[in-house]
Amino acid sequence: MLSMDSVPLGEALKSLIKQGQLNVVLDPKISGVPMANTPSVSGRWNKVTARQAIVALCVNYDLMIVKDAAGGGVTIKPRD
Fold it and tell me: What is the pTM of this model?
């Protein structure tokens, strides 16, 4: 089970990346210092992997998942 209560979006993503031991980089616009208008994540997920939770957050918060063809890593960034 994954559980979060009023966690800034960037911190929520960092936590999920760490839990899933994933090769993911966050754009500085997401992982930077939280601002007053930074969305907070609250929720409980059962039978969901860290990867699935990350995808769900990206969909909910209009973020892009960009795969690096050369290195095999992934970057998450805001849609411009």
Answer: 0.86
Domains of the chain are 2-78 (3.55.50.30)
From residue 20, alpha-carbon distances to 6, 15, 27, 37 in Å are 20, 9, 18, 27
Which residues are CB-neighbours of 19 under 8 A, at least 6 positions away? 2, 50
Distance CA 65, CA 1 (A): 23
Q: 3-29 pLDDT, tens per residue?
A: 899 999 999 999 999 999 999 999 988
Distance CA 78, CA 30 (A): 7
